[in-house]
Design brief:
This protein is an all-beta fold and 159 residues long. The protein is built from no helices and 13 strands.
């Protein structure tokens, strides 16, 4: 493995994976407080799915879906990670169809962002069947409106 790409190329903190088509893989992510967040990438023959969305001016006391993804027929999806962040303290809920599968809260004493990792469910993540919907929803109780964003990350494979 090599780490000789330059910072100007945007490849700082990356490694060259010479066993897999000489691709460059990001090895860490920087959150809003500039602290590194360790990221684990798992080997797979499937396609990486990364669905991101932002919502703006969410009113206090109303729940809204930030991002959702419906998985196509003939495929299976392994949910690996859900990331979330926002301007206000909030409660984030992750749903598998209508079933709540994870809940997190942010506080002013901590960061206003976070993530839920699902790789502990199996080597690839939490298996989701074709036609099921994964969604990340948010609700906040601050007096002003707020902007929020979220990402669903996983692997899509043929059945």
């Amino acid at each position: 493995m090599s780490t000789n790409k330059s910072v100007e190329d945007g490849f700082q903190d990356c490694i060259e994976d010479t066993d897999h088509n000489n691709s460059w893989v990001k090895t860490k992510v920087i959150n809003e407080s500039s602290e590194p967040i360790p990221v684990t990438f798992l080997a797979t023959a499937g396609d990486i799915v990364s669905e991101f969305n932002s919502i703006t001016a969410l009113a206090s006391g109303s729940q809204s879906a930030i991002v959702s993804y419906t998985f196509p027929a003939g495929k299976k999806f392994f949910l690996q990670l859900a990331e979330y962040s926002g301007e206000n303290i909030a409660e984030y809920e992750i749903f598998r169809d209508t079933t709540l599968i994870a809940k997190r809260r942010t506080y002013f004493s901590g960061g206003l962002d976070g993530m839920v990792q699902f790789v502990q469910s199996s080597a690839l993540g939490l298996e989701i069947s074709a036609g099921e919907v994964i969604s990340v929803k948010v609700e906040h109780a601050r007096p002003m409106s707020g902007d929020f964003d979220a990402r669903i990350l996983g692997v899509l494979e043929d059945v």
